[in-house]
Structure formats: structure tokens, C-alpha cells
Design goal:
The complex is a heterodimer. By secondary structure, chain A is an all-beta fold. Chain A has no helices and eleven strands. Chain A has strands spanning 3-5, 9-13, 18-25, 31-37, 44-49, 53-57, 60-65, 70-75, 84-91, 99-100, 104-109. By secondary structure, chain B is mainly β. In chain B, a hairpin with a 3-residue loop joins strand 4 (31-38) and strand 5. The chains are: A mainly beta, B mainly beta. The A-B interface holds A 8, 30-31, 33, 35, 41-45, 48, 50, 87, 91-98, 100-103 and B 31, 33, 40-43, 45, 48, 50, 58, 90, 92, 97-99, 101-107.
């Protein structure tokens, strides 16, 4: 089967940095994506890593290590509006759809 | 710029009733998906369609049917609703099934009494 593991909850202070980890075990791997979902809203795409290393987009960065089957999402200069659920998802290539993790609920506190 | 549009946004059904959830996308995407989301369970794939005329089962297809009416539209039908199908349903689309990001609709909140 396919499995993605990420922490269920993380709490961090406004202005700080937080890292959300994702380890995966899937048959086939093309890349790792991250999605953000605010309460009552729809998931929205944040980033995609196909190669090892760090990808930076503003305050958000995403990292991938294919050899370790591991990735993380790094959020810097946390703001209250970053309070949301974050999902990692694996692309397995071929004709297979994404596999999503169960999500990490991030709470940013003052 | 609508993206992915789902109707209805909210619905309450009685056990045994049938219902079709509608989804349309205007991005000319090939692939479309239906997910359900329950607390603590993340997004679980019900059915997907790689292209017009094809559909495949996902992780939790029992109790559901789908129709890819054309490239734009992908509907989800509950033939005989059960309380276990109370959930938030999301439709999504992407250019292909692999590397391209998925774009989600706003969801349908379905309660079955």
C-alpha cells in the first residue's frame, strides 16, 4: 500500500519558523507536493519538488530527499493567517493519481 | 476566472435518497477527481477520470458512481445515501495525473440523516 506520515498537529509562535515533516512509502515516486487548507476552505497548491534540495517561494520553502523518502515544508516569519492544515502528497507517475497524507494542523499563536 | 465549480455547496438528505453532485472546470484540464474529507482522515479519493470517457476507482468507491459527461464536467452520484456518507466532498482537476498541481472546488457539505 501507499503511506505518507506527517504530524497531526503543530503549534508555533507568530514570527517564528516551523517545519512540517513528511515521510512516504509508496510504490513509485515522481515528486512531492504540498497543499494548504484553511478551515472551511478548499486545498490550494503550495509547492512541488521532483529533485532533491530546497525550493523557496517567498516565506515558504519545501525540501526533498529522495534517498530518505522524506520531505518537509518550512514556513518562516509565521503569521496568524498561516494557521491552517498542510497536506503532503506524492506523485507516483504513470497513470496514477496523487496520494495525500492525512494533514498537519498548524496553529500559530501570539 | 471560475476554476473548478461545485454545486450544490450544502445539502441535507434522508437515508436512502439519491443525489448527484456536479462539478465543472474551465481550465481545459484532462484529469478530474472526486474526494471526500472527514475529520482526521485527510483527503480520500473516491473516483477519478484521466480523460473524457474514462473513469477509475479510487480508495473509497463503494456507494458512489461517477460520470465524465465531457471534458469540463464530472459528476458524482449517491444512489442510496447512508449516514456514513456524511462528509465534505471536493472535486479537483489537473492537466494530468502526475506532476501538475490539482485545483480544487470549494466543496459540497453533505449531511445524511
Amino acid at each position: 500500500g501507499q503511506s505518507l506520515e506527517q504530524p497531526s498537529e503543530v503549534t508555533a509562535v507568530e514570527g517564528a519558523i516551523v517545519q512540517i515533516n513528511c515521510t512516504y512509502q509508496t510504490s513509485g515516486f515522481y515528486g512531492l507536493s504540498w497543499y494548504q487548507q484553511h478551515d472551511g476552505g478548499a486545498p490550494t497548491f503550495l509547492s512541488y519538488n521532483a529533485l532533491d534540495g530546497l525550493e523557496e517561494t517567498g516565506r515558504f520553502s519545501s525540501f526533498l530527499s529522495r534517498s530518505d523518502s522524506y520531505g518537509y515544508l518550512l514556513l518562516q516569519e509565521l503569521q496568524m493567517k498561516d494557521s491552517a492544515s498542510y497536506f503532503c502528497a506524492v506523485s507516483r507517475g504513470g497513470n496514477t493519481p496523487l496520494v495525500f497524507g492525512k494533514g498537519t494542523r498548524l496553529s500559530v499563536i501570539a | 476566472n471560475a476554476g473548478v465549480t461545485q454545486t450544490p455547496k450544502f445539502q441535507v438528505l434522508k437515508t436512502g435518497q439519491s443525489m448527484t453532485l456536479q462539478c465543472a472546470q474551465d481550465m481545459n484540464h484532462n484529469s478530474m477527481y472526486w474526494y471526500r474529507q472527514d475529520p482526521g482522515m485527510g483527503l480520500r479519493l473516491i473516483y477519478y477520470s484521466a480523460s473524457e470517457g474514462t473513469t477509475d476507482k479510487g480508495e473509497v468507491p463503494n456507494g458512489y458512481n461517477v460520470s465524465r459527461l465531457n471534458k469540463r464536467e464530472f459528476s458524482l452520484r449517491l444512489e442510496s445515501a447512508a449516514p456514513s456518507q456524511t462528509s465534505v466532498y471536493f472535486c479537483a482537476s489537473s492537466q494530468d495525473r502526475g506532476r501538475q498541481p490539482q485545483h480544487f472546488g470549494d466543496g459540497t457539505r453533505l449531511s445524511i440523516l
